[in-house]
Structure prediction request, 187 residues.
Amino acid sequence: MSRASPAKPLAAIVFEESEKANRLLADFAADRARAGTRIGGIVQISANMTECNETHVLDLETGRRLPVLQNLGAHSQSCRVDVTAIAEAASLISGAILREPELLFINRYGKLEAEGKGLFAEIGAAALSNIPTLVGVSIHHVAHWRAFTMDLAQELACSRAALDEWWHEIALATPRVQAQSLSAPEP
Prediction:
C-alpha cells in the first residue's frame, strides 16, 4: 500500500500490547542489522513480565542489557521505573544520535515522556537529527505523542508489514542508506 505523502523519518509504532511491540521492534532491529544497516538506540526486552529484574533495555550497538525497573520488595506486587537507569538509557540514545546511525530505535514514549521526563529530550533530539527513528508509543499516550510531535511523526500499525513499508520508503528517500538497506535480511 503506498502513501500519498512521503514517509517521515520519525515514526511511532502505536501499540496496545507492549510485549508485542517490544518483540516487533527487537526483531526488526536484528533483521536490519543482519542486512547491514547501521543501527543504534535501545529496545526493551522482557524475559518474564512477573519479575521486575527481568525487564531490560538492550543497547543495540553493544548488546549490553540495562535493567529499567526497580523491585519494590518481596511483598510488593508491582515495580517502579528506575529513574537512574532511565537517565543511563537517555545517555545511550544521545551517544547513538552523535554516531549518526542509519536507523535509531527508542523503546518507548510512555507516561514519563508524556510528562516531559524520561526519554522526552532524546526523542526530540532524534527528530531534529533527521535520523530515521522508530519509537514505541502506547495507544494510551498517543494523544500526548501527537501534541509533542506536532504532525512531524508518522504513526505506524504495530505490524511487521507496516515497519517494512516505512523502512522501504525511508531507504528510497535517503541516499546514504539506499544501497544496502533495501536488501532483504538473510534468514
About this structure: The mean pLDDT is 88.
